[in-house]
């Protein structure tokens, strides 16, 4: 396992709205600290950082553009020179120019962190893998929320997280932890 000199860190939906209590119980309380560790590492090594911001089409969303929940959390504010991708659906590749940005920069490897594991992280990682990018998802730098399955059975955030990672592992991405990434240089 080796981290390429131009591997892109993709940080998904670290906006104020994701902290709203109405989203319910979550897992990985340390996820943001892991994301910040990776972000500091990327900035120090001058690798490309891509911030993904969700602009919801639904007025009742925590990411509706007309309220503060759509704004980045202060600790995840993009710096000059870092890329911003705005999306309206979970997949950060869908109608955003992300694929073009990566291809034009010669980036073949992406490291994905953020929220929610079962939604934007999973859909973005699936597309990245399908498009041929070497895709890593950092499980301890992602989190999700409790959710009922199709049959109405309540599932804990940890169960939802684990199933999403299981969906990705091996077929679309390689699932790793922060330490594996930080020691992959």
UniProtKB/TrEMBL annotation:
Q: Name one Pfam family in it.
A: Isochorismatase
Give GO MF terms, alphabetically.
hydrolase activity
Q: Which SUPFAM superfamilies match?
A: Isochorismatase-like hydrolases
Q: Does the keyword Hydrolase apply?
A: yes
Q: Does the keyword Cell membrane apply?
A: no
* InterPro entries in alphabetical order: Isochorismatase-like_dom, Isochorismatase-like_hydrls, Isochorismatase-like_sf
Note the superkingdom of the native organism. Bacteria
Coiled-coil segments: none
Q: What is this protein called?
A: Cysteine hydrolase
Please report the organism this UniProt entry assigns to the protein. Answer: Pseudomonas reinekei
User: Lineage in the entry?
Assistant: Bacteria, Pseudomonadati, Pseudomonadota, Gammaproteobacteria, Pseudomonadales
């Amino acid at each position: 396992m080796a981290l390429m000199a131009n591997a892109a860190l993709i940080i998904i939906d670290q906006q104020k709205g994701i902290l709203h209590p109405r989203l319910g119980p979550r897992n990985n309380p340390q996820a943001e600290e892991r994301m910040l560790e990776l972000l500091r590492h990327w900035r120090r090594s001058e690798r490309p950082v891509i911030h993904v911001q969700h602009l919801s089409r639904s007025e009742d969303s925590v990411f509706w553009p007309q309220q503060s929940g759509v704004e980045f959390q202060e600790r995840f504010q993009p710096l000059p020179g870092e890329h911003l991708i705005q999306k309206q659906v979970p997949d950060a590749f869908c109608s955003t120019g992300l694929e073009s940005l990566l291809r034009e920069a010669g980036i073949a490897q992406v490291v994905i962190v953020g929220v929610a594991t079962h939604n934007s992280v999973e859909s973005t990682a699936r597309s990245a893998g399908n498009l041929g990018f070497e895709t890593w998802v950092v499980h301890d730098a992602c989190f999700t929320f409790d959710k009922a399955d199709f049959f109405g059975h309540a599932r804990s955030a940890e169960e939802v997280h684990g199933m999403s990672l299981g969906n990705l592992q091996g077929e679309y991405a390689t699932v790793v932890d922060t330490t594996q990434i930080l020691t992959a240089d």
